[in-house]
């Protein structure tokens, strides 16, 4: 799923990802409330979030939607500098070969 408030950028990212990885049916949201609704209903495997949304920032959005018990203050090990799971958190969750 892609979350970005710039339609041209969101569409370009979608086309690149669909072509590179043969993915179909990728969902899009252009604001935080829509993204929260889609994530909670669809439970996507991956969500790419713009860090500077108009209504909130991507880090806060990730805190609300990621990890076990989504909706709590735990962002599920999200590390803004790396843009994904930090190595330690991911290893604990079995998502990263150490």
Explain what the structure shows.
The chain has helices at residues 7-21, 32-42, 58-65, 87-92; strands at residues 2-3, 28-29, 48-49, 78-79, 84-85. With 98 residues, the protein is an alpha/beta fold. The protein has one domain (2-92): 3-Layer(aba) Sandwich (Rossmann fold), CATH 3.40.50.2300. Strands 2-1-3 form a three-stranded parallel beta sheet. Strand 4 (78-79) and strand 5 (84-85) form a beta hairpin. Helix 2 (32-42) packs parallel to helix 3.
How would the blueprint of this fold be written?
Layout lengths: L1 E2 L3 H15 L6 E2 L2 H11 L5 E2 L8 H8 L12 E2 L4 E2 L1 H6 L6
Parallel strand pairs: 1-2, 1-3
Antiparallel strand pairs: 4-5
Helix pairs in contact: 2-3
Radius of gyration, in Å, reads 14 Å
The CATH class turns out to be Alpha Beta
Specify the biggest β-sheet: 3 strands, parallel
Task: Say what oligomer this is.
Answer: single chain
CATH superfamily: Response regulator
Structural class by sheet pairing and helices: alpha/beta
Low-pLDDT residue intervals, each spanning 5 or more residues: 71-90
Strands, count: 5
Range of helix content: 40-55%
The helix tally amounts to 4
Taken from the alpha-carbon principal axes, the silhouette is globular
Architecture in CATH? Answer: 3-Layer(aba) Sandwich
């Amino acid at each position: 799923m892609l979350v970005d408030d710039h339609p041209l950028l969101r569409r370009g990212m979608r086309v690149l990802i669909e072509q590179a990885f043969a993915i179909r049916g990728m969902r899009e949201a252009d604001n935080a409330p829509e993204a929260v609704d889609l994530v909670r209903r669809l439970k996507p495997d991956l969500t790419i979030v713009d860090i500077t949304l108009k209504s909130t920032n991507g880090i806060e959005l990730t805190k609300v939607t990621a990890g076990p018990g989504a909706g709590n203050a735990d962002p599920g090990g999200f590390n803004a500098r790396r843009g994904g799971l930090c190595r330690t958190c991911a290893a604990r969750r079995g998502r990263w070969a150490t």
